[in-house]
């Protein structure tokens, strides 16, 4: 660990729990975010992403645990001094104020002088391509423009930490694509710490430098997009990261602890599993990109083509093998020769298969 590792993180949550009546929204939640990182909280709705952001912002008082910002304990500190700004899913703009006044409002509240306000409003508007909209009211703007105003109102305060709660959910696909690029650009330009909550896998993988996968109010696994894709810790993470989803095949561990009996035949994992017992029920995870039509003479699983879905430069081919449906992702040209009903032997890249315990879903090592 070099010098960088000893730096105080921008944000640290330690053992934070929060219940609403019988519902446990956060369950002993712990993670830290290095300064300047674009950090994504990822998972389906109701896993605790919004509660986590609201806790960091100071809008939620926790039942237990500790929250630190830049090394200072702010668990019970007031909202104002935290240096944190949050953009909600609903933009919550002031409808009776112009864009200029919406931008200026938080600075007026902080007692910033008029000239400084004017400079910062114009800078922020230029950066968000809203200079020509400053005199308009929010309800005359498009959804994308309203979103940029909401963002600008948070950025103008120059927060140390920017919290974004599913900010692109209400936008159409084209705008979401543009705003993703815009947010990454702003992140590079300002170098601030961003914590971004989303249920959208594409958004998480394309924007997050680091991703925390959440489930039931806690972080299941965190890592770079590549780490989560290549080394999922359990079937939950494996199923959430990677599109199309990983193929899962029921299996039983053989006595040698290195091979598995499956409906596709015996699969050799190429490694001895230390945390397993012979005869244990397992799930074999195979990424669609780790399957392909076999070359002549290669070890293969017999299969029949079931469905072909062209997706531009790649094609998803579903095959039936041993009573299982497997999806494989092929380059467009190698899928062109296939049609439903064709018999095709399939080769599996056994060095890349994932083996999970059937009982718990945890990865076997």
Overview of the molecule:
By secondary structure, this protein is an alpha+beta fold. The protein folds into two domains: 3-239, 3-Layer(aba) Sandwich (Rossmann fold); 246-357, Nucleic acid-binding proteins (OB fold (Dihydrolipoamide Acetyltransferase, E2P)), CATH 2.40.50.140. Helices cover 24% and strands 32% of the residues. The protein has nine helices and 20 strands. The protein has helices at 49-57, 99-109, 114-127, 143-155, 173-190, 201-207, 225-230, 235-240, 332-335, and strands at 11-20, 23-33, 38-42, 64-69, 72-73, 84-87, 161-165, 193-198, 210-215, 218-223, 247-253, 259-262, 265-268, 281-286, 291-293, 304-311, 314-321, 324-331, 346-348, 354-357. A six-stranded mixed beta sheet has the order 6-7-8-3-9-10, sandwiched between helices. A five-stranded antiparallel beta sheet has the order 13-12-11-14-20, with no helix packed on it. α2 (99-109) packs across α3 (114-127). It is elongated and about 80 Å long. The mean pLDDT is 93. This is ABC transporter ATP-binding protein. InterPro entries: AAA+_ATPase, ABC_transporter-like_ATP-bd, ABC_transporter-like_CS, ABC_transpr_MalK/UgpC-like, Mo/tungstate-bd_C_term_dom, NA-bd_OB-fold, P-loop_NTPase, Transp-assoc_OB_typ2.
Which secondary structure elements does this structure contain, and how are they paired or packed?
Layout: E1 11-20, E2 23-33, E3 38-42, H1 49-57, E4 64-69, E5 72-73, E6 84-87, H2 99-109, H3 114-127, H4 143-155, E7 161-165, H5 173-190, E8 193-198, H6 201-207, E9 210-215, E10 218-223, H7 225-230, H8 235-240, E11 247-253, E12 259-262, E13 265-268, E14 281-286, E15 291-293, E16 304-311, E17 314-321, E18 324-331, H9 332-335, E19 346-348, E20 354-357
Helix pairs in contact: 2-3, 2-4
């Amino acid at each position: 660990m070099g010098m960088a590792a000893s730096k105080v993180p921008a944000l640290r949550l330690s053992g934070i729990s929060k219940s609403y009546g019988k519902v446990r929204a956060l369950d002993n939640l712990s993670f830290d975010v290095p300064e300047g990182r674009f950090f994504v909280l990822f998972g389906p709705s109701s896993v605790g992403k919004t509660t986590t952001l609201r806790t960091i912002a100071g809008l939620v008082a926790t039942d237990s645990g500790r929250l630190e910002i830049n090394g200072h304990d702010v668990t019970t500190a007031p909202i104002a001094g935290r240096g944190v700004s949050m953009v909600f899913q609903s933009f919550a703009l002031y409808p009776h104020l112009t864009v200029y006044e919406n931008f200026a409002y938080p600075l007026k509240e902080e007692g910033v002088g008029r000239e400084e306000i004017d400079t910062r409003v114009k800078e922020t508007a230029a950066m968000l391509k809203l200079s020509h909209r400053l005199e308009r009211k929010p309800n005359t703007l498009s959804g994308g423009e309203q979103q940029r105003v909401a963002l600008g109102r948070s950025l103008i305060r120059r927060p140390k930490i920017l919290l974004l709660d599913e900010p692109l959910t209400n936008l159409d696909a084209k705008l979401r694509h543009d705003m993703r690029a815009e947010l990454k650009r702003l992140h590079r330009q300002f170098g601030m710490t961003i914590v971004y909550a989303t249920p959208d896998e594409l958004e998480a993988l394309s924007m997050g430098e680091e991703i925390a996968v959440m489930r039931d109010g806690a972080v299941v696994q965190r890592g770079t997009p590549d780490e989560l894709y290549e080394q999922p810790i359990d079937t939950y993470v494996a199923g959430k990261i990677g599109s199309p989803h990983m193929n899962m095949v029921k299996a039983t561990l053989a006595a040698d602890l290195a091979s598995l009996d499956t409906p596709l035949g015996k699969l050799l994992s190429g490694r001895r599993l230390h945390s397993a017992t012979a005869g244990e029920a397992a799930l074999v995870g195979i990424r669609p990109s780790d399957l392909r039509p076999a070359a002549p003479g290669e070890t293969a699983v017999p299969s029949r083509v079931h469905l072909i879905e062209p997706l531009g430069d790649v094609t998803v081919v579903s095959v039936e093998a041993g009573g299982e449906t497997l999806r494989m992702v092929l380059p467009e040209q190698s899928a062109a020769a296939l049609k439903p009903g064709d018999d095709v032997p399939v080769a599996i890249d056994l060095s890349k298969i994932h083996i999970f315990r059937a009982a718990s879903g945890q990865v076997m090592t």
